[in-house]
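Q: Start with the shorter request: fold the first protein.
A: Done. Sequence, then structure:
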Amino acid sequence: MRHDLPGLTALKTLAGALVISVLFGCFSSVSAASPELGVWINHTGRGAVEIRPCAEQGPASRNLCGYIVWLKDPANKRGDPLTDGYNPDPTKRNRSICGLPVLGSLQRVSDGGWDNGWVYDPEQGASFDAAIKLANRDRLVLTGYKGIKLFSKSFTWKRAPDDLPRCDGVQQDARKKASAKTQEAKALPALKVPRPVPAVRPKPIEQSKALD
């Protein structure tokens, strides 16, 4: 019976552990450099979705989710903020469209894209299976389907500009804080620099007085 040398066995064990460690590290969380992350204007041009990890840590941090962060028309004809009025669940129909989760549970797949997730269309109040994949750095293809992709439908989203105003208050809060700091700085009384005091040299003592 053949036996591997102890040193060779240890080397194989170490190599296997390193491979497992690397693989686990690759899939343990979404890299901050993943090109799918960011804000994307959807195919209608009326909304934008921010794609980000579903959680900061834990199993959900390995998946991608998407939330509406910009609306071309954030209010209805009466001037009221848009809500999830077509949702089949009556308890959710008062949810604001701004900040609404519309993508979820997307998992990295072997072809480099993300699949096995879901997409929610608030204009229909319907959910579908979903997959996303980059066409290029600034184009993302969303595919919606039901169970199998035989009757799927795909849409192309484009990357939003960095200065796109958000409806979820993230940029607004940052601007308010910056403005508050500016106003606070303006409110502080200006410091007055004291005028320099000229040096006074002592008068020379007369010799006659010095002798007294």
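Q: Next, the second protein, separately.
A: Sequence, then structure:
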Amino acid sequence: MLLFSANLGFLWQELPLPDAIRTAKAAGFDAVECHYPYDVPVEAVRTALSETGLSMLGINTICGDVAAGDNGLAAVPGRENEARRAIEQAIGYARAIGAPNVHVMAGKAAGEAARTTYMANLRHASALAAKAGITILIEPLNRRDAPGYFLQTSEQALEIIEAVGVPNIKLMFDCYHLQIMQGDLTRRLQTYLNSIGHIQIASVPDRREPDHGEIDYRYILRLLEQLGYDRPIGAEYRPATSTEAGLQWLKDYR
């Protein structure tokens, strides 16, 4: 049976996070995930998760100074202290709400110094996360939506995972980003499945509901079932109108 997670960074943004969790449950989602929950008290999130029986699959480290153009910190040379504070904040919050994954945002950077910085920060993150039973996720982002972002392809991510050499760093396989950057999703899913920690979906090219566009998600979801993937798939898309108005895909894909 296919399972789906509502990404509350995009879905039901008009609601406070605890209410969005409850609404996702009522809409038929099997889990939730979000980006930056840090302004919401841990106890309020825990209560909503307990009431609904949903798990919060993962959260992100903060971007940094968004007004200044930051999109993460972990690969940015000279900002190691900020990056590690963000990592510690995310792991602490994830542990408090029982989230099994933390996505460490790489940020805008390039070159060997950025790679070295990123790997050092990932080693720091993986060591802290291991103590809490948490997996670190890294996610390639497409250069159209995230110009200058350090991590852009699945191969780059997997090479870094192999070089860091710890078992609790996995690939966040976002079909939207990887279709734009590389395509060939079938082969990549088949080849990289054991290195994937989470999968996300959205239509391409508009990042709306996953029921149209150039990716045939009926095919992708059947493939994942055939491959034995049994974890919730993250719905990380921007609703065309309201979240509720666009949920027919969830019923159809069941």
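Q: Describe the second briefly.
A: The chain has one domain: 11-253. Residues 11-253 form a domain with the TIM Barrel fold (CATH 3.20.20.150).
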